[in-house]
Fold this sequence. Notes:
This protein is α+β, with helices and mostly antiparallel strands. Helix content is 56%, strand content 12%.
Amino acid sequence: MKPTGFLKRVLSLLLAGSVAGCAVGPDYHQPAAPQAALTPTPLPAQTLAAGGVAQVFSPGADIAGDWWRLYHSPELDALIAQALARNPSLQAAQATLLQAEENQRADLGTLMPSLSAGFKAQRGQNSMDSTAGSGFAATKPLPAYTLYNASLSVSYALDIWGGARRGLESVAAQTQYQHYELEAAYLTLTANIVTAAIQEASLRAQIDATNQVIGDERQQLGILQSQLSLGGVAQASVLQQQAALAASEAALPPLQAALVQARNQLAGFAGVVPGDFHAADFTLDSLHLPVTLPVSVPSAIVAQRPDIQAASAQLHEASANVGVADAQMLPQISLTADIGHEAVSTGDLFVPQTLLWNLVAGVTQPIFEGGQLSAKRKAALAALQASGAQYQATVISAFQNVADALSALQYDAMTLNAADTAAAAAAQSLAVTQAQYQLGGQPLSAVLIAQTNYQNAAIAQVKASAARLADTAALYQALGGGWWHREDVAASCCGVIP
């Protein structure tokens, strides 16, 4: 996302950093990206061909901001557009960023002089006027009078140690953190929608496969019941088939319940209650597997991952806070000037004879604070160390995500290839076994085993296909999701940032 105020934030952050070159405390530099390989073993050029498709790895390829469109699903595109416009969590992240921006603008005033103007009218009367020197005789009341005062006051705290600039640097880093938190919220939301849509499609396919098996078993049960009435089979064979049918039917409700939960989850992502959710159903046939997959270099991953950049902003904030703590231990210099006029009539208010002014310069040096300033500095250093460790942990976790996704895609292709082979063999075995049973060449138990094998193989095939789709989404999420290419700031969609 590219909010209209983000460029100003970046420029102000760079300005604060450049001015702070003479400020106390450490100057922040983002740690260098790891140079290690992404995976323990060299990445192949492509995955195994499964389902007639091999996914090709493209090192250094860029990522589109709307990467989910690579699934070529209009239903998915429409749902994500709705979610970007209505998801409350995304709206909360946007509002939090706006709050941080306004706080940063407010704190910019700490480097400026404080200027205030005032006007005061005071009505009063003295108690008496002595007309006899120091005596108490011959007194008479004074008339009431009005005293007018107009003044202008200027105060300025000299930031000779850079404490205020380090404070602004810290606030700017907080704003950057909220920006990347918004990007992370956007990326998480879109990736979750894609994953939930794939889960729904997988469950629908599993339900279809289970229903097909149930239909076959019911047909087989009908044949056995007819044979039983003619005395061709024993009642035990009918009972066995009834038990097999009941087991298959028992497997259906959990799948249906999971499907309802997946739909409800999608409703939550879209920002509506389940009763108002009417998005199109997702099927595996409606989702097309992306063929060319980007593989970013380590330095690009660090720049692209919102969570890494957010951790970097927190590390920057902690670094600036050390400078703030250092500056608080040094002398503080302030300048204050007041100028104005005071008169008993408005006509004489601005004549030279009524001019009043003063200029004050002050220096404050902390001498004894009960160890507070020293302890605060040590706390700031500890916070800096903690942020550094957290940044390192975030980078390691991010590279682990990428490595996991790349490895999963390779194994997903192998799994799907094996599942396709197993499903085809199971279907053929079931057909042959049923035919042989009709001719008396196989017992009913063989048919039941073949039915179970076919059901398991069909469901495994569906799960393998869905896993390949989901792990592809996981790779795009692990690489940052292409947020740097987004141009969706508009009044009607996708993150309104004034």
